[in-house]
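Support reply, case 0932

Customer input (verbatim):
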Amino acid sequence: MASSNVATFVLVHGSWHGGWCWQKLLPFLETDGSRVFTPTLTGMGERKHLASPATGLSQHVEDVTNVLEYEDLHDVILVGHSYAGLVISGVAEHSDRVGKLVFLDGIVPEHGESMFSIIPGLQEDFESTADSQGLVPPWEPESFGVVEPEDLAWMTPRLTPMPILTHAERLDAPLMKAKTLPRSFIHCTQFGLGGFAELMRSEGGHVYTLDCGHDAMVIQPAELAEVLRKHV
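Our regenerated output:
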C-alpha cells in the first residue's frame, strides 16, 4: 500500500483520446512524488488496433479495474475526464481500491444510464457518422477548447475513432458505490457541463472551477495539477 504522504493518481481519458493526452499535466502533478498512471482504454490511442464493434463501456471499466489490481494500487485518486465519468463510476462499483473520485468535466451517471441516454441528440449524431465497424470519427480539437497551434498539431493525429458501443452501453452499477466515496467535480466553464457541477454540489461533493475549455489537461495543465493536489 502506498505511504500516507504519497498520492496515487489514475487518470482516465475521455472519448477519442488516449493515455497520451495527460503528457502536459504529468510534470506538474509528479513534482511532489505522487505516483501517476495514465492507462489507455481498449480501442483508443496506441491501442486503436483493438477497436471492434464489441468494444464497450464494460470493457473500459475492466481495463481500469485491472490496472488497479495488477499494479497493486490502493486508496487511488481516480480521475475521469468526460465520458470516463461513467468508467470511473463502474470501477468504483467493482473495486475496493478507490479512495476518491474526481470527475474532470466528466459525466456523472446513475445506474443504467449511458452517454446516449444522458446527452440528448448524441445517439443520432454518432449513428450518422459511424463507419461499418461502429467507429465514430473524432471531433476536432477545437471542439474541446484547444486553440494553440502547437497543441492542435500535437493532438490532431493522436485522436482516434471511438467505438459506438462505449456510448450506447449502460452503466452496470446497481449499488452505486461511487456515491459512498469522496467525490468532486472539476468544471471547465467554457464547455457546458455545468449541470453536473450543480448535481455534484447538491449531492454533497466538492466543486472546483477552471476557466477553460473541456481539455483542461492540455489547456491549463499547471492549474489542473493544483486542483488535483487538493485531493491528496
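We compared this against your earlier run and they match. Two observations from our side: The domain at 8-229 is CATH 3.40.50.1820 (Rossmann fold). The chain has one domain: 8-229. Please reopen the case if you see a mismatch on your end.
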